[in-house]
Specification:
The complex is a heterodimer of chains A (282) and B (340). Helix content of chain A is 73%, strand content 3%. Chain A is mostly helical and 282 residues long. Chain A has a domain at 55-245: MetI-like fold, CATH 1.10.3720.10. Helix content of chain B is 40%, strand content 16%. The chains are: A mainly alpha (282), B alpha/beta (340). Chains A and B meet through α3 of A and α3, β7 and α14 of B.
């Protein structure tokens, strides 16, 4: 009897979906980035690298630098919060309840949640009013419209995306290894850094990717809670597309963003693979 | 059997909703907060139709959406510069003036100022105004009534400017005594230095939520359209607000209604434009926006005192299409936005 490979059939809808909504649009962006711009939007069908030469200027690098720094900070803080939370959930008796609570915010629209943060951090907001009524501060603090507000809201937004993969890794982690480490004389910190964290590395990696990459592409968060200096790549691309209507430039920025993240993930995954292979040989 | 009943119910629901959809629909693409709901409801009722209302935040956004293939809209509301671009690009349909008798109500002095479409072949004026400055007098007592307010370091971090280069650079040009439509590089460079001085003291460039921030007391001085500020305020806070238009001039706009070329409901679109310029309808809009009426008959019946009058705009200049010189503006604006 001939063996049919059902795998291909099962994944056909997904393949088609990705082709239509990912591969084709990305190819269009790639193509447009090498064309000439048309005044007030659109492209002329002539080859040109203007889109790329226009990138070589100080202001673009400044924006890229700002974006990367913000994203790194946000990712680091997200992991710092997500690891203990996931540990707690994985060890808890009410896992389902806690997981459910992690997912609850998804029921509300993303933009509405940003506006909720504005009303928490604002001058007349919850936090300022509480501090004022407790007498800790005398006049409202300016908590919004700066890069810290961007980081806070980014961390909040991507926290669930970090908790879920971490949880699923930690749940599978064999906690008796920690006991064994302690029995063999490791301190609490040693067992944490040498046994626990390496053991959940794959979860940490997924969580990092899930946080860092969307943070790089932020648009609405810096727009709404950022200040006059908070201009991220996403905002720059939107501006080139919507305001100055330089489609090739917007496309070349998107291509650069895509290439940089792809290379980043590639390196990230590869170093990890090498390490785990080493471990297996041992 | 039960299954069949359910199927029947579902099907009939589809058919019924199909009937409802059989009503003609008018698709309007407009600025946010620009027509009161009561006016739209009145139109829906009188003409037995349904209005679908989508919004945009800037001319550029509207234009980019239509350009990128956003079709299906019947009417949109570009400002003068974009109305002329859209006419030149052949994006709008000619207006049949016989179907819009209420055009006779529009102030002739204003029509005379329209250079790009002097006899209203394509665009029918809707509303005229400017982006001035709103000040919260609860926090600020003493201040200059022009854009030099943005140079005041004591209000640092409490002020916003529009995220719109035509407005901000235009205001800077006007404060230097140049035309808001200048394409002279040295004039624009001088304007850039002025804007950089303002930028040091502002919290952010914002066109989307300055009204909300102003209402909640976060921002004390905002550069923006009066209606976006006042519609966020309640009776109690409105008395603390002073809205001014700099005496040394600035930009002003005339937003017009245009019927898009691919409109499927041209007749209904004409009826809508005619309805808007009915004096009693127009008065409702002017009252809601608290803007000066360009409809002469409506001026007699408006109830609210507008935030400013047409006379206040005497020194202001219409924004015109800059053609390919817009690239110079783009460059300067980008430098302003990214420079620290």
């Amino acid at each position: 009897m001939k063996k049919i490979n059902y795998g291909k059939i099962y994944t056909a809808p997904l393949t088609m979906w990705i082709t239509f909504f990912f591969v084709i649009p990305t190819s269009i962006i790639f193509l447009y980035s090498f064309l000439k711009k048309k005044l007030r939007g659109g492209v002329l069908w002539e080859f040109s690298i203007d889109g790329y030469t226009a990138l070589i200027n100080q202001s673009f690098f400044k924006v890229v630098w700002f974006t990367v720094v913000i994203s790194i900070f946000a990712t680091f803080l997200t992991l710092l919060l997500a690891i203990p939370t996931s540990y707690f959930i994985a060890r808890s008796k009410r896992k389902n309840l806690y997981l459910f609570l992690v997912i609850v915010p998804f029921w509300t629209n993303f933009l509405i949640r940003i506006f909720a943060w504005i009303s928490i951090l604002g001058n007349n907001g919850f936090l300022n009013n509480m501090l004022l009524s407790l007498g800790i501060i005398k006049s409202p603090l300016m908590l919004l419209y700066n890069q810290y507000a961007i980081i806070v809201v980014t961390v909040y937004t991507y926290l669930p995306y970090a908790i879920l993969p971490l949880y699923s890794t930690i749940e599978k982690f064999d906690f008796s290894l920690l006991e064994a480490a302690r029995d063999l004389g490791a301190s609490k910190l040693q067992s944490l850094f040498k046994i626990f964290l390496p053991g959940i590395r794959s979860g940490i990696m997924t969580a990092t990717i899930f946080t860092f990459i969307p943070a790089l592409g932020s648009y609405a968060i810096p727009l709404l809670v950022g200040g006059q200096k908070s201009f991220m790549i996403g905002n720059l691309i939107a501006r080139e597309l919507k305001v100055t209507m330089n489609w090739p430039l917007a496309s070349s920025m998107s291509v650069v963003l895509t290439v940089v993240t792809t290379i980043g993930i590639f390196i990230f995954l590869n170093t990890n693979k090498n390490k785990s292979e080493l471990k297996n040989e041992n | 059997m039960k299954k069949n009943v359910l199927l029947f119910m579902v099907l009939s629901a589809f058919i019924l909703s199909g009937c409802k959809d059989g009503k003609s629909k008018l698709y309007i693409f407009n600025w946010s907060y620009y027509i009161p709901d009561t006016v739209l409801e009145g139109f829906e009722e009188e003409f037995n139709t349904k209005v679908v209302y989508d919004v945009f935040e800037s001319n550029e956004e509207m234009f980019a959406k239509l350009r990128a293939g956003g079709t299906g809209y019947d009417i949109t509301f570009p400002s003068g510069d974009y109305a002329s671009i859209m006419i030149n690009e052949g994006m709008v349909a000619k207006v049949n003036r016989d179907l819009v008798p209420n055009l006779k109500n529009i102030d002739e002095n204003i029509i005379r100022k329209i250079k790009y479409d002097p006899i209203m072949d394509y665009s029918i004026p809707y509303m005229m105004g400017t982006a001035g400055v709103a000040v919260n007098t609860k926090f600020i007592k003493d201040f200059p009534k022009d854009f030099s307010i943005f140079e005041r370091e004591d209000f640092k971090g409490r002020m916003t400017l529009l995220d719109d280069m035509r407005e901000v650079i235009g205001s800077a040009l006007a404060s230097l005594g140049y035309s808001v439509n200048s394409v002279n590089e040295s004039e624009l460079r001088q304007a850039k230095e002025v804007v950089l001085k303002w930028k040091k003291n502002i919290l952010k460039f914002d066109s989307a939520s300055f009204g909300k921030g102003f209402a909640s007391g976060e921002f004390w001085v905002v550069n923006g359209y009066a209606e976006n500020v006042f519609l966020e305020l309640d009776e109690d806070t409105i008395k603390d607000v002073l809205y001014f238009i700099p005496k040394n001039g600035g930009t002003m706009y005339l937003d017009s209604m245009v019927i898009l070329k691919d409109s499927k409901n041209v007749e209904l679109a004409h009826q809508f434009i005619n309805y808007i310029h009915r004096p009693e309808v127009y008065a409702q809009i002017a009252d809601y926006l608290m803007l000066p009426s360009i409809n002469v008959e409506a001026r007699k019946i408006v109830k609210e005192i507008p935030t400013y009058t047409i006379e206040d705009l005497a020194n202001n200049e219409f924004k015109e299409d800059l053609g390919s010189n817009i690239e110079l503006w783009d460059k300067i604006w980008q430098e302003i936005r990214v420079q620290n």
